[in-house]
């Protein structure tokens, strides 16, 4: 702030409007920095345990839901890739291998709510008939 006062004295009274614009511009830059920090905190607030965490999530929570909807059991059910999408919670798109002997996979969309709600992960949608080579896209 002292530098701003010195600059005002140097510029003279006639250019104080210009100084206000400089201060306002600096304030806007600080607001942008705070906004970026908040966005980073929102993205990194909930812990993400990577693929290992998705494997646990898939086996314990989502596998029984899929088996109930498909009316069959999956002896192999291994998450091999995932993507995430932040909404009012997180959508996880997970590629799951369902066979040791073939390339057969299933793509899952799993929603997990924000931490204060403590909402359990739930299967939203799935696509069967996929292979390990198929791209994992949002659906």
Describe the structure.
There is one protein chain. By secondary structure, this protein is an alpha+beta fold. It has two domains: 2-44; 50-131, Nuclear Transport Factor 2, Chain: A, CATH 3.10.450. It contains three helices and four strands; from the N terminus they run αααββββ. It has helices spanning 2-11, 16-44, 50-70, and strands at 78-87, 89-97, 104-112, 122-131. A four-stranded antiparallel β-sheet has the order 1-2-3-4. The radius of gyration is 25 Å and the shape is elongated. It starts with a helix and ends in an 8-residue tail after the last strand.
CATH class of the largest domain: Alpha Beta
Q: State the share of residues found in helices, binned by percent.
A: 40-55%
Main sheet record: 4 strands, antiparallel
Low-confidence stretches: none
Question: Whole-number average pLDDT?
Answer: 77
**Apparent shape:** elongated
* CATH-derived architecture of the largest domain: Roll
Structural class: alpha+beta
Helix and strand string, N-terminal first?
HHHEEEE
The quaternary structure here is single chain
Number of domains: 2
Query: What is the rounded Rg?
Result: 25 Å
Strand order of the largest sheet: 1-2-3-4
Strand content: 25-35%
Number of beta-strand segments: 4
Number of helices: 3
Separation of the first and last Cα atoms: 52 Å
CATH topology-level fold name of the largest domain: Nuclear Transport Factor 2, Chain: A
């Amino acid at each position: 702030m002292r530098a701003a006062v010195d600059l005002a004295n140097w510029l003279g009274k006639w250019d104080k409007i210009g100084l206000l614009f400089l201060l306002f511009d600096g304030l806007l830059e600080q607001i942008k920095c705070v906004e970026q920090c908040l966005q980073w905190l929102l993205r990194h607030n909930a812990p993400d345990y990577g693929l290992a965490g998705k494997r646990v999530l898939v086996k314990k929570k989502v596998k029984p839901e899929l088996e109930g909807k498909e009316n069959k059991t999956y002896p192999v059910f291994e998450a091999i890739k995932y993507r995430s999408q932040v909404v009012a919670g997180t959508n996880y798109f997970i590629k799951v291998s369902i066979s040791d002997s073939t390339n057969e996979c299933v793509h899952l969309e799993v929603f997990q709510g924000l931490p204060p709600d403590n909402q359990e992960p739930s299967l939203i949608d799935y696509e069967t008939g996929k292979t390990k080579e198929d791209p994992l896209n949002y659906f």
